[in-house]
């Protein structure tokens, strides 16, 4: 009598480490999509760059770097 020792252990036949994993069955040629009959994929629209946002983030980064420079300049040993 083989009972599972934990709730996560399957009750079916044990899997062996040397057992090879099974590969999916090949698709028959008549069911395989043909590359010539497939419709072309639509192109993704290009995202526009929001220059206002880029400018604001750049300004915030520069101000932050300036504040950090002043703090380090005043408290760093000579």
Mean pLDDT: 77
Count the E strands.
Answer: 0
DSSP helical segment count: 1
- N-to-C terminal Cα separation, in Å? 80 Å
Unreliable sequence segments: none
Taking the sheet with the most strands, its summary is:
none
Please report which band the strand proportion falls in: under 5%, 5-15%, 15-25%, 25-35%, 35-45% or over 45%: under 5%
Global structural class? mainly alpha
- Quaternary status of these chains? single chain
What report would you give on this structure?
The chain has 78 residues and is an all-alpha fold. Helices cover 32% and strands 0% of the residues. It is built from 1 helix and no strands. The chain has one helix at 51-75. The relative contact order is 0.05.
Short summary:
By secondary structure, the chain is mainly alpha-helical. Helix content is 32%, strand content 0%.
Q: Strands, helices and their partners?
A:
Elements: H1 51-75
Which terms summarize this structure?
mainly alpha; elongated
């Amino acid at each position: 009598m083989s009972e599972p020792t934990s709730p996560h252990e399957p009750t079916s036949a044990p899997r062996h480490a040397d057992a090879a994993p099974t590969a999916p069955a090949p698709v028959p040629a008549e069911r395989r999509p043909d590359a010539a009959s497939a419709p072309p994929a639509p192109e993704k629209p290009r995202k526009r760059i929001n220059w206002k946002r880029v400018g604001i983030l750049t300004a915030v980064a520069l101000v932050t770097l300036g504040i950090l420079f002043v703090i380090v300049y005043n408290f760093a040993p000579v």
